[in-house]
Amino acid sequence: MKPAILVARAVFPQVLERLRQYFEVESNQDDHILTPAELATRLQGKQGALTTASARINEDLLQQVSGLKMVANMAVGYDNIDLAACHAHGVMASNTPDVLNETTADFGWALMMAAARRITEAEHWLREGKWTKWRYDYFLGPDLHGATLGIIGMGRIGQAIARRSMGFNMKVLYHNRSRLSPEQELAANHAVYAGKEELLRQADHVILVLPYSPASHHTIGAAELGMMKPTATLTNLARGGIVDDAALIAALKVKQIASAGLDVFENEPKFHPDFLTLDNVVLTPHIASASEKTRLAMAQCAADNLIAGLTGATPPNLLTLK
Ligand code: GLV
Ligand code: GLV
Asked: Is the per-residue pLDDT at 322 higher than 90?
């Protein structure tokens, strides 16, 4: 008999078809977001699950299910999964790194450039019929070329963002738990390691690409925003909770920084309603990895991991406790 798995959210039909070659698949193509209780119920008798950030895999859940062997998360981030609890319950977990690096880096640039050059704000103004004349000082913003880019979180996505800055002749500062090798720094447009405060004080554009964990909670709050230049932009494509959204709103209101680009929010898909009252923030619904090719690659990668893990092989992206 094929092992049973749960695909917890809607996914590409061809990926479901592939999973059906190996497993008895319970799918959720109408994409109902499962409550923790529903998830526990649906996982009864399942050996595997393909999940996204909306599924919390924690001690509470794992105590209620038995026989679960593997959770394959379709995301590079895995802050929704308690690895220690998985370890204690003998459950393997995997993520989908690498396949989304370049697509996510592209989007980081799009968001940062939109925030700096006020693209969505100008478009709203145009759509509202306000464009009756050109003026020398309409929608002025900071330049990107020649400016200093500050990258907090210099993993594979951060390095891909840095490489793109070569064409903009930017100086790159980065802050990370560990320093890159000299070769990696060179490849990342000669990125220079800096303390967080030094980076925030010097950067013209700050971009956040670090994983969420209790240690990175509110990496950017009121104090950090106060260190930034009044002409600076802040872009978050990592996770909600890395920025203190209320503090950011307060800073944007008084133009303590010029603008922000946000793809992730605290408590998303809910978010602080005051963001909607601000002109100087570009808001997108957690779509940094959303190219057709990359989302399919992420789903296939999650499926590869699940197939490996439940057929006795080592999942290529097995997460282990650090
Ligand atoms: C995806 O990121 C989700 O919220 O499930
Ligand atoms: C998306 O946010 C991911 O972690 O892949």
From this structure: no
